[in-house]
Amino acid sequence: MVGQNVIIRPPNNLDILDMASSEKIVVAFDLYGTLLSTESIAQELAKQFGQEKSASIAATWRKYQLEYTWRLNSMEQYLPFSSVTQRALTHALSENAVPPPPEAAVASLMSAYDSLSTFPDVAPALESLAKSPSVTPVVFSNGTDEMVGNSVHRSRDLSPYSKVFRDIVTVEEVKKFKPHPDVYYHLAKKVGKSKGDMGDIWLVSGNPFDVVGAKAVGMKACWVDRGGQGWCDSIGEGKAGEPDFIGKDLGEIVQTILRASKTRQ
């Protein structure tokens, strides 16, 4: 990419990963955009508003869903992620010149958001993870307890792997959103770690802002680069702002973490 610093790491680049602790690695998987594809909501949008506009509405919906969380963080305000998501939908529909739909249609779309499809690489990666006792996987999300619980335990794609995760950690209790430092410290507390143990927790995310947020508090972070574009985010300072590992899919990242966990035993 012209004008951007693109960093692509080799798949087996483990030299910067700290293997000092003998404890199990805690692996926190982001949900939306990492395990679940927010683009998959386009199928439901097509039923309501037609195929022609569905992809655009889905992309705009996700754009404002994230932007609203960042605005709320900056204003030191909080709304449940379900409310943020619904308001972002209203914004997306308006921007795409779609008249306000009936309440039943909005309710149907919000319900569908609890059943998003997983990315194709998720199932085999979680199957591999389920066979390893050397890591402690958790889900870590901006979503509400109800939204995330529904997705993990009831969605068609993800529910078969719900027992892989030892816990579900959301931001609902702390009332801030990623990448605010408090949400990562909240994660640490929930998994039995202190602020001094942040390096024992690994984040796996497909969202660069999440990766940068985790790195800023001293966590390890793996970025799922499904688009194969390389790391372009420049807000972090040097290597401290970059992922510890970049994988082309979730399976590559899980295998990297499993190899690292074996060296700690």
Topology:
Blueprint: E1 25-29, H1 42-49, H2 51-75, H3 81-95, H4 103-112, H5 122-130, E2 135-141, H6 145-154, E3 167-170, H7 181-190, E4 201-205, H8 208-216, E5 220-224, E6 245-247, H9 250-264
Parallel strand pairs: 1-2, 1-4, 2-3, 4-5, 5-6
Helix pairs in contact: 1-2, 2-3, 5-9
How much strand content do the residues show?
A: 5-15%
Poorly predicted regions are: 1-22
Give the helix/strand class: alpha/beta
Shape: globular
Succession of helices and strands: EHHHHHEHEHEHEEH
* Alpha-carbon distance between the two ends: 40 Å
What's the total count of β strands? 6
Radius of gyration: 18 Å
Strand order of the largest sheet: 3-2-1-4-5-6
**Largest beta-sheet characterization:** 6 strands, parallel
Helix % is 40-55%
Number of helices: 9
pLDDT averaged residue by residue: 90
How is this structure best summarized?
The protein is an alpha/beta fold and 265 residues long. It is built from nine helices and six strands, in the order E-H-H-H-H-H-E-H-E-H-E-H-E-E-H.
